[in-house]
Amino acid sequence: MSTHSGLAPGKNATVVRYRYGWGMLAGALGLLAFAGIFVFYLLTPGQAAREFNPFVPWVMIILVGPIALLFLAGSLFVLSRTHRVHVDERGMWFSSWNETDLIAWTELRAVRAREPRPKPKDDPKADSLPAALELHPGDANFAQCHAKLVKTTDSGLCTVDLPGRATVRRLAQAISKYRPDLLR
């Protein structure tokens, strides 16, 4: 992403906000709950002495506790990063913290909002498709200009991965407000 000095989205721009990391937070809370089970056994010494070797809860807390706390801190850090897409008459402004990248409408031939699709059950070699915004570039240098933002596929399409179906729908609705002719 590049920082555009002097350029900013219009005042009437539609803003779509999203965050990554909700699954990571759920995993961290699950690990903390697992470590909490062993803390419970340590707090009830009569039950711990009957059912376990007394060192098992300590070993599990020492092994799982710090990992769970690091995982929790990491997930909170990831969740604190709010990504924004400002859509206005000039294009889409992707911003994350202090980095901004403008994809102008003139750089695109078409835009397609791709909702996530699960892995087909009958084809073991097929992969699931994440939610993404598929961009059909108008020039050959598009992928190089926006290399930090987009992923290039074998078919020449560029995609911007998004966290879920709701984000894709909100972004498609914002694009249709300004450039319905580009949306497919």
Q: How would you sum up the global shape?
A: elongated
Largest sheet: 4 strands, antiparallel
Total number of helical segments?
A: 5
- The poorly predicted ranges are none
Category by helix and strand content? alpha+beta
Strand order of the largest sheet: 1-2-3-4
Number of strands: 8
Q: Rg from C-alpha positions? A: 23 Å
The proportion of residues in beta strands is 15-25%
Write the layout of secondary structure elements.
Elements lengths: L13 E5 L3 H22 L1 H7 L3 H26 L2 E5 L3 E6 L2 E6 L3 E7 L17 E6 L4 H4 L5 E2 L5 E4 L3 H14 L6
Antiparallel strand pairs: 1-2, 2-3, 3-4, 5-6, 6-8, 7-8
Helix pairs in contact: 1-3
Task: Give a structural overview.
- With 184 residues, the protein is of the alpha+beta class.
- The chain folds into 2 domains: 22-80; 84-120 and 129-178, no CATH class.
- It has 5 helices and 8 strands, in the order E-H-H-H-E-E-E-E-E-H-E-E-H.
- It has helices at residues 22-43, 45-51, 55-80, 142-145, 165-178, and strands at residues 14-18, 83-87, 91-96, 99-104, 108-114, 132-137, 151-152, 158-161.
- It has a 4-stranded antiparallel β-sheet with strand order 1-2-3-4, with helices on one face.
- A hairpin with a 3-residue loop joins strand 2 (83-87) and strand 3.
- Helix 1 runs antiparallel to helix 3 (55-80).
- The longest helix has 26 residues, at 55-80.
- The two termini are 25 Å apart.
- The model has no long low-confidence stretch (mean pLDDT 85).
- The chain crosses the membrane at residues 20-43, 55-79.
- Keywords: Membrane, Transmembrane, Transmembrane helix.
- This is PH domain-containing protein.
- It comes from Saccharopolyspora erythraea.
